[in-house]
Write a structure and sequence with these properties.
mainly alpha; about 0% strand; globular
Length: about 150
């Protein structure tokens, strides 16, 4: 019994030492998008549609796979304890322009229902801080997406 427990811990630590695959990066980014959509306690259909559109556009993923990715990310969000789990992967794997692009995607989700709830704004601000995006880029991106959805 102790041998099987030891093997379990060794396999988990081996997986955590490995470099995250692009799929894990996508899942982390999508999980952050879902966190933004859920920040106001309602995941509206317009937000879900925008999420699918953003995922498909950003990674050129067919619609059938997008639904599966969203489902996997929703499960990840359900079991996650904090944003740090996802932002850690983003910081390890993405360069600064990619982080700003992720921020743009987060704003697209927030603006999808026609308004940005203060909880959504706060969540994006926290994510922005955790992925080390400068405040000027935070504001520029928000205003750019706002104008796009106006």
């Amino acid at each position: 019994m102790f041998t099987s427990i030891k093997q379990l811990f060794e396999s988990v630590s081996a997986k955590s030492d490995a470099t995250p695959s692009p799929d894990l990066q996508q899942l982390a980014a999508i999980a952050l998008m879902i966190e933004v959509a859920l920040a106001d306690q309602s995941f509206e259909s317009s937000e879900r549609e925008q999420l699918a559109k953003t995922i498909s556009k950003q990674w050129s993923i067919p619609p059938a796979e997008v639904d599966a990715l969203i489902h996997d990310a929703e499960q990840q969000v359900d079991v996650s304890v904090s944003l740090f789990e996802h932002t850690r992967l983003i910081n390890e794997q993405l360069n600064y322009p990619d982080k700003v692009q992720l921020l743009r995607s987060l704003w697209e989700i927030a603006f999808a229902d026609g308004r940005v709830d203060h909880y959504e704004d706060h969540t994006i601000r926290r994510i922005s801080d955790l992925i080390y995006v400068e405040h000027t880029d935070f504001i520029k991106t928000k205003l750019s997406v706002r104008d796009q959805f106006a």
